[in-house]
Structure formats: structure tokens, C-alpha cells
Design goal:
The chain is α/β, with parallel strands linked by helices. It folds into 2 domains: 144 residues, Ribonuclease Z/Hydroxyacylglutathione hydrolase-like (Metallo-beta-lactamase, Chain A), CATH 3.60.15; 78 residues, no CATH class. The protein has 7 helices and 11 strands. The strands form 3 sheets. Strands 5-6-7-8-9 form a 5-stranded mixed sheet, with no helix packed on it. Strands 1-2-3-4 form a 4-stranded parallel sheet, covered by helices on one side. It has a two-stranded antiparallel sheet with strand order 10-11. A hairpin with a 2-residue loop joins strand 5 and strand 6. The longest helix is centred in the last third of the chain and has 18 residues. The structure holds zinc ion. Zinc ion binds next to loops. It comes from Auxenochlorella protothecoides. InterPro entries: Metallo-B-lactamas, RibonucZ/Hydroxyglut_hydro. This is DNA cross-link repair 1 protein. GO terms for molecular function: 5'-3' DNA exonuclease activity; damaged DNA binding.
Length: 244
């Protein structure tokens, strides 16, 4: 779960707020949202008018269409593109978490009086991928990272998970096997969060290309198979539904 500690929600020395809608400060106008999971939007309501929320395009659409925020308070930022917000250079970087999830890299300018620029990476929830992430131009260009804020679930040595692709393939194989054992139509129910999570991808791996495959609300996110709802029905007999 995301921390609910005010000190972790503000970039040190600035009034830039990351996933900290519970902790509005006077004068804070720039809010960054790493992704749309509820533990990171805590305190945010559709009537939000305390400033501008910067996030990925996918998260922006969810904020507007799902949560009902005014489009005027949401500013989508393209991943890997650096912009200036409140005098600070900000680069969103894909977090390898749910659809739309990004980390934010902040480069805070020096004060002209000898204090050098400072770099802060706020991760939100993220799944580290050594090969992919170390190829991010903004990270490769970093000389030093001064502050790393790991506001991410499972950030403890006792949690070790297989690579995502391995999990997807194993779960997809399980669904295929069960479908092959069944007669008639097959219903797969994935119990998951509102967005993201591997099970959407799993169901798409098995049936996503089939005519008649049912998945609702697929236009709002950037997942591999365009699924949004947790219930997916393959209308074919199991033997056909398992053809892929
Ligand atoms: Zn999350």
C-alpha cells in the first residue's frame, strides 16, 4: 500500500506533491499522480480544484471518465518527455506497474548560491526491470540520484516474484488447460483491481483474438489486450476456444 506520510508526498524543498491528495498545503498547486490505484488517489475527489494534476495520458482519461474530474485540472504528460513544472524539470517514466503507471524524475535547479541541482526519483508503485529501465534515456543521463522515494508495495527483500512474462504464461497455460477440460462455453473470472493486473493480460493471451470475446470498457487503458472488466466469456465450445 502507498504510504500515508505527508513528508513522503512532497518533493523536498519544493511544493510539488506526489500522490498526496490527503495532504494539501497552502500554496501547493502542482500535483503529480503516479497511477490510478486507490491507495495513490487517496483524498482525491471529482470536485478537486486545488491546482493541476500531472499524470500519464491513460491516467488522465481515467480521472476524467471514471472519477469525473474536470478536464481543466488534469494535464497529461507523455512518458520520457521532460517538461518544466513550477521551475522544476519533470520527466515521467513508465513504471512497469498497471496501465498508465509512471514514475516521476525531478531535477530541481540549484539556488545560484552554490547549491547544485538536485535529482529526485519518486516511483509510486513500480516493478523494476533492469534491462528496460536502465535504457531509459533520462536515467542513463543521470550522474547522481540524490533522493529515491520508493512509495511502492512489496518493496522489501522478503518479496521476490518471478518475471511478469513468466507469470502471464503460467497463468495463461492454466486457463487453457482448464478450458480444454470443459465442455461447452467457458467463463473465466479474474478477481482484480479496477485497472491493471496480470489477469487481464492472461485472459487476452488465451482468447483476446477470438471473435465474440467479451471484455468491457477496453478503450480507457493501455494494457496489451484492451480489457477493463473482470469477467470475460469465450462464446466458443472449449475445444475451439482453446485453439490459439
Ligand atoms: Zn498500484
Amino acid at each position: 500500500m502507498a504510504s500515508q506520510v505527508e513528508a513522503l508526498k512532497y518533493i523536498p524543498g519544493t511544493s510539488l506533491n506526489v500522490d498526496g491528495f490527503r495532504f494539501l498545503r497552502p500554496g501547493a498547486r502542482h500535483f503529480f499522480l503516479t497511477h490510478f490505484h486507490g491507495d495513490h488517489t487517496t483524498g482525491l475527489t471529482k470536485g478537486f480544484d486545488a491546482g493541476t494534476i500531472y499524470c500519464s495520458p491513460v491516467t488522465a482519461r481515467l480521472l476524467i471518465r471514471d472519477m469525473g474530474l474536470r478536464a481543466g485540472v488534469v494535464c497529461p504528460l507523455s512518458p520520457h518527455v521532460t517538461v518544466e513544472v513550477g521551475g522544476v524539470a519533470v520527466t515521467p517514466l513508465p513504471a512497469n506497474h498497471c496501465p498508465g503507471a509512471v514514475m516521476f524524475l525531478f531535477v530541481i535547479p540549484g539556488d545560484g548560491g552554490g547549491r547544485p541541482p538536485r535529482t529526485v526519483l519518486h516511483t509510486g508503485d513500480m516493478r523494476w526491470d533492469d534491462g528496460a529501465m536502465m535504457a531509459y534515456p533520462a536515467l542513463r543521463a543521470l550522474g547522481t540520484l540524490d533522493t529515491l522515494v520508493l512509495d511502492t508495495t512489496y518493496c522489501a527483500p522478503r518479496w521476490t516474484f518471478p518475471p511478469q512474462e513468466q507469470v502471464i504464461q503460467a497463468a495463461a497455460e492454466f486457463v487453457r488447460r482448464e478450458a480444454a477440460r470443459s465442455a461447452g462455453r467457458v467463463l473465466a473470472v479474474a478477481n482484480s483491481y479496477h485497472i491493471g493486473k496480470v489477469l487481464y493480460v492472461v485472459l487476452g493471451e488465451v482468447w483476446g483474438g477470438q471473435e465474440g470475446f467479451q471484455g468491457k470498457g477496453g478503450d480507457m487503458q493501455g494494457g496489451r489486450v484492451g480489457l477493463q472488466k473482470v469477467i470475460c466469456v469465450c462464446p466458443f465450445p472449449a475445444s475451439e476456444g482453446n485453439r490459439r
